[in-house]
């Protein structure tokens, strides 16, 4: 019976399909060689990328790290005294070496790379592609939020890369990744632009990645992604991989963002970003039924006393444009405001209760606003801050996480003695639920002089610490 039913189903499917008219291409095709009929011609992009290769450098860094785990345990004096020897364990601090790439952007030695390539390094060495000469480099400035950094070597007459306009890229454009994968020396891989404007990857706080299938491997970080003309369209940054090797999904920071960040780092040595004090999200499918506009940045919370609050913005407002620039997602608004300097004035257009409204807002300084929420003297050695977009991203916290974030615990302090750790989220003191630094400070002061149970969320697990 089952066999008969299966045959009947197939037959019915066939009869149905026979009534469908498919679009079909003419089967008569002609194949041609990309090099024509001249057998002495080789199809090659060598001349296109030869100049770009001269602009890509190898970077090696060293940093001092603490030994960890078993080695650290066997370095304990107890084990040395008990067993009479040191197990051949290295010293408590040792040198770590890493490799990466960089791109020369000026004849007098400015080089762009990834922040993670040079971060916390004791020494940075740059090796030129032409001639292999090695230089010591100094850090001009870095921006962890975009994973970009500018370093400089004392040299002149260098081969500076030519920038292309990354906003003109299209899916399918041919690109080449140039860098130093696995420390084997300068290498070139080829692929296409697989996607554009990739965000929510979780790599950086500000994301607008170019996705490519050109092989990007460890050591390629900070190297160049160039188009078929050899012009820079991006800085290679990361890959998506379960094994650690290339799987055809690589990400590069667009050249337009690179150029903007690099100019600010070279001129000022740092990046100062505008800030309005809101948490934002994309519209869900269910929420789209409520709003007239189906795209935008939905405000989920407003920090009291900051620019958005002072301008009258509220939870539930849907921002649809900024300075007449359409805002289609939360990432659009975050990147736009983050690209502006503090004290800039912007005009936001937003939807509230079906009506379109406008607000002019003077931007605050993101760093100053974040620091203003910190209070260091509540418990000796304890630094805390309110949760906001930046801290939630940095510590990988869910949007519905509440409490006060512990940003630092000084060694040997009362805070360390009580058991606090960096990254703890203080959610309750005694019977009081904690929502901000001000509430935490007030509650701790009221409990001064007596033992109090402080509840912290530590990596998803609640722990009670006794404070006195």
Characterise this structure:
This protein is α+β, with helices and mostly antiparallel strands and 468 residues long. The chain contains 13 helices and 26 strands. Strand 16 (318-322) and strand 17 (325-326) form a beta hairpin.
Compact summary:
With 468 residues, this protein is α+β, with helices and mostly antiparallel strands.
Query: How many beta-strand segments?
Result: 26
Helix fraction, binned, reads 10-25%
Proportion of residues in β-strands: 25-35%
Low-confidence stretches at least 5 residues in length (pLDDT < 50)?
6-15, 68-89, 372-377
Biggest beta-sheet profile? 6 strands, antiparallel, barrel
Distance between the termini: 78 Å
Radius of gyration: 28 Å
Task: Itemize the secondary structure elements and their pairings.
Layout: H1 2-17, H2 46-55, E1 56-66, H3 69-74, H4 77-83, E2 93-104, E3 110-114, H5 115-118, E4 123-127, E5 134-143, E6 148-152, E7 174-179, E8 187-198, E9 209-212, E10 224-227, E11 232-239, E12 250-254, H6 255-268, E13 274-275, E14 278-281, H7 285-288, E15 297-302, H8 307-310, E16 318-322, E17 325-326, H9 330-338, E18 345-352, E19 355-362, E20 364-365, H10 366-372, E21 382-386, H11 389-394, E22 404-409, H12 414-418, E23 425-429, E24 432-433, H13 437-446, E25 452-458, E26 461-467
Antiparallel strand pairs: 1-2, 1-4, 2-3, 3-6, 4-5, 5-6, 7-8, 7-10, 8-9, 9-12, 10-11, 11-12, 13-20, 14-15, 15-16, 16-17, 16-18, 18-19, 21-22, 22-23, 23-24, 23-25, 25-26
């Amino acid at each position: 019976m089952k066999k008969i039913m299966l045959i009947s189903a197939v037959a019915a499917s066939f009869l149905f399909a026979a009534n469908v008219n498919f679009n079909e291409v003419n089967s008569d095709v002609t194949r041609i060689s990309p090099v024509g009929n001249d057998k002495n011609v080789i199809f090659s992009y060598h001349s296109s990328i030869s100049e770009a290769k001269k602009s890509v450098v190898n970077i090696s860094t060293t940093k001092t790290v603490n030994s960890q785990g078993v080695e650290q345990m066997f370095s304990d004096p107890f084990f040395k005294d008990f067993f009479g020897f040191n197990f051949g364990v290295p010293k408590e601090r040792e040198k770590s070496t890493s490799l990466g790439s960089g791109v020369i952007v000026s004849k007098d030695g400015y080089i762009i790379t990834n922040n993670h390539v040079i971060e916390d390094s004791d020494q940075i060495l740059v090796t030129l592609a032409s001639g292999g000469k090695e230089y010591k480099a100094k850090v001009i400035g870095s921006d962890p939020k975009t994973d970009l950094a500018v370093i400089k070597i004392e040299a002149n007459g260098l081969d500076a890369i030519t920038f292309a306009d990354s906003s003109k890229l299209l899916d399918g454009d041919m690109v080449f990744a140039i860098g130093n994968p696995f420390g084997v020396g300068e290498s070139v891989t080829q692929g296409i632009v697989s996607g554009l404007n990739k965000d929510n990857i979780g790599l950086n706080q500000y994301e607008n990645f170019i996705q490519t299938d050109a092989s990007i491997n460890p050591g390629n970080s900070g190297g160049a992604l160039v188009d078929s003309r050899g012009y820079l369209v991006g800085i290679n940054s990361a890959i998506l991989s379960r094994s650690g090797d290339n799987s055809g999904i690589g990400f590069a920071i667009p050249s337009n963002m690179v150029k903007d960040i690099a100019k600010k780092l070279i001129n000022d040595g740092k990046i100062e970003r505008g800030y309005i004090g809101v948490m934002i999200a994309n519209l869900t499918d269910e929420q789209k039924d409520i709003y007239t506009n189906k795209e935008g940045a939905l405000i989920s919370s407003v920090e009291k006393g900051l620019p958005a609050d002072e301008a009258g913005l509220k939870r539930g407002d849907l921002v649809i444009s900024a300075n007449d620039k359409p805002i289609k997602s939360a990432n659009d608004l975050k990147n736009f405001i983050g690209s502006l300097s503090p004290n800039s004035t912007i005009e936001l257009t937003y939807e509230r209760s079906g009506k379109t409204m406008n607000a002019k807002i003077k931007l605050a300084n993101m760093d100053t606003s974040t620091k203003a929420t910190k209070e260091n003297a509540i418990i000796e050695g304890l630094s805390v801050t309110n949760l906001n977009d930046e801290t939630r991203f940095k510590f990988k916290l869910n949007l519905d996480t509440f409490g006060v974030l512990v940003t630092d615990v000084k060694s040997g302090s009362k805070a360390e003695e009580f058991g606090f750790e960096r990254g703890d989220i203080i959610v309750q003191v005694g019977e009081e639920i904690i929502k901000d630094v001000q509430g935490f400070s007030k509650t701790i002061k009221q409990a001064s002089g007596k033992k109090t149970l402080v509840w912290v969320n530590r990596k998803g697990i609640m722990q009670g610490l006794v404070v006195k």
